[in-house]
Amino acid sequence: MEVGTLNVKLRSTIGSSHAVKTRRGGAIPAICYGGGKDPLNLQLVPSDLQKSLDPKKGRNTLLRLNVEGTKDVLTVLVKDAQRHPLRGDVVHVDFLRVELDKPVKATVPLNLVGKAEGVKQGGQMHQVYRTLDLLSLPDKIPTHIDIDVTALNIGQSIHVADLKMPEGVKAALPGTVTLCVVTTIKEEKEKAAAGEGEAAAAAVPGDKAAAASAKTPAPAAKGGGDKAAAAKPAAKPAAGKK
Fold first, then answer.
1. φ and ψ at 140, to 5 degrees?
2. CA pair distance 60, 105, nearest whole angstrom
3. Cβ-count burial 181-206 (b if 16+ within 10 Å, e if not)
4. pLDDT tens track for 15-42
5. Which one of 108, 131, 165, 172 counts the least CB within 10 Å of its CB?
């Protein structure tokens, strides 16, 4: 079983001002919840978190949190990680308590392996999903799912039901969902043209309205403003000097 280890500390104070102080001290705030237990407010060193995660699994790495000052060892997954909008560094982490005999939801990359026969014949591979949602035991989450597409001919596709999943893992999508399909170049062009046509159709009403508005002359101002201006006598010429 692949398990990372991370040392954390209990955080007795909460709130934005305390979170700022925590970050200034070189740590970041975190919280651990789930499993029918009360949430725990924690803090940890960001670099330690990075080292504890498997480079290939990332957030899907099963972690053991050693809580400083206690004998508690928490088995968790990273549920969420908030990043600074400009610097991009992690500023807060959510951990989810898990049990090794209960499935959890995870998302992994979906890789197409090989060159489809239909592509060799001039077709085009269309990958509908590039990631796949899974229900897996926490210690069985795979790094990725591979699909062998070498036997696919033009017009053939692979669905969720066709996947061979590892033990303790199943897809969280219906079996009828299409993951990839080999199409002809013509079909791809027709799909692209249809998409452009829909976009153009959506834009036409607004364009016509704008064009009609531009061609329609503005109504004359009411209230006799122009008549009043016309009726106003012209200024008398200045008298010449004698």
1. -115, 5
2. 10
3. bbbeeebeeeeeeeeeeeeeeeeeee
4. 777 777 788 888 999 999 998 999 999 9
5. 131
**What DSSP line would sit under 43-90, residue for residue?**
EE-HHHHHHHS-TTTGGG-EEEEEETTS--EEEEEEEEEEE-TTT--E
Model confidence pLDDT, tens digit, residues 140-199:
999 999 999 999 999 999 999 999 999 999 999 999 999 999 999 865 556 666 666 665
Domains, in order of start, for the chain: 3-97 (2.40.240.10), 104-186 (2.170.120.20)
Under 8 Å between Cβ of 3 and 65: no
Scan for tokens 């549920």, then name that residue: 79
Q: How far apart are CA 100 and CA 29, in angstroms?
A: 26
Cβ count within 10 A of residue 5: 12
Residue 142 tokens read as: 């795979």
- Of 71, 54, 67, 39, nearest in space to 2 by CA: 54
Separation between Cα atoms, residue 165 and residue 51, nearest integer Å: 29
The edge-to-edge listing of strands for the beta sheet with 104-113 is: 145-148, 104-113, 131-136, 169-171
